[in-house]
Design brief:
globular, DUF5981, FAD-linked_oxidoreductase-like, 8-stranded parallel beta barrel, Mehydrof_redctse-like, FAD, about 500 residues, binds iron/sulfur cluster
Amino acid sequence: MTTKRSFSEALADPAQLSVTWELVPGRGAREKAQEHFVKMAELAAKDPKINAITVTDNPGGKSAILAYSMAIEAKRLGIDPLVHFTSKDKNRNALESELYALDRADIQNLLVMTGDYPGAGYAGSAKPVFDLDAVHALRMITKMNEGAYTKLPATKFFAGAVVSPFKSTEAEIMAQYYKLHKKIANGAKFIITQLGYDARKFDELRKYVDTHTLTVPLIGNIFVLSLPVAKLMNKNLIPGCVVTDSLVAKLEEESTYSNKKELQLLRAAKLYAVLKGLKYNGVNIGGHGLSYIDVQYIIEKGEELSVNWQEIAADDFDHPQDGGFYFFEKESATGLNTCQPVNRSQTGSSNSSLKQSLMDVVHEVAFDHKAPLYPLNKAIAQFIDKSWLKQPFTLAEYTTKTMTNECRFCGDCAMHELGFICPMSQCPKQQRNGACGGSRDGWCEVYPGKQKCIFVTMYEGFKGRGKEERMKAKYMPPCNWDLHRTSSWLNYFNDRDYNNNKE
Ligand code: SF4
């Protein structure tokens, strides 16, 4: 008889897929959702094939019972929880508090992500926080695991992150992959994909990770898709989840069949088979109201079908997005990818504006530490900093940046590192290290059809100047709120800004 292994043990075993089952804690404390959670976790605890229960954190930005509280219940029932850990509605101190609580409860597995934009709540919409992005949170957890920063005994968190290969534009895909490098460099120990049904995209991520020697286990997301949910995802009403028109049409056809539920589960089992064939290290199974029997079926049928995974990939998961970008050239024999990246000088758009080129020049001449005017500017800034000029200078900087970039007066400006785009005013989630997972066709998750994702604009601008690799190069620390309402130029030249962040 197989013995039950923890999530991290299962992921480390190349001979077998690890299996996590995603359960949504739901709204309320003693409602159907929590009862279902407990019943299913109890059954999963007895099954050696299920290694962990994934516990979501306010999906869709709507409030639900704390993921942490349900994770404790899962732990008590004897199954490892994998807790979604987001900063959408908590600042860095609240996140740290949550980490202490998780540590005390001996809950180590965390899935660190940006989180969906907060939605409707008591007396109106909730205030979005996003004090840290996913890369910052991973780094903070790594520092706690090293016993650094808190100067307390080292923690043992096993933290992973999310990536979406299911983006349609080159800029979005590259923004996802560049951020993936930063997530891994800052401590992500495993990576879970967003939701999608395109085998070539799953294969792309596998090959991207392998060819860039990003040695982390990959977990593919399997969501049992019903027609109503597929339609919501197709209309971009569930952030980051991609269901194409061709797949909706297929589900519409199936909806007239009496065995439509079986077909939905069979599709999930087939995706399991494909992910196993593509050498993913694990799968994360989810879906509304899934029963233990459903999950068992997906695992067993998926194992049985895995010998024919290539056929299944070609027949059932060929759902490209219209004009969608792929990082690698297509392999005609399989419909998947070769290991040859496409020539990106001939794809996508590049759009460096005159303003960006001019700002680059100004930075290289006056601001960069090696700039010819840097010593003079530093001396002037040191003088101003100690004189009555400090206040008018600060006001002048704020006024200028308000006119050009809707400045939010954070005092810790990083625009010159980010293609002269301000993440504080122009990204609703204030991301400093790369795009969240919610963009669709280049548009921002929060303002679809109205505002481009800033990382799309940034990529296109950098690409126009041959500097797009900069988006993965430098870790951008979070804002230091001590500097709020002060001059970021004075902070920069007086060595007080994020470049001097002592972590
Ligand atoms: S601008 Fe981009 S990173 Fe920011 S919230 Fe919108 S989609 Fe996400």
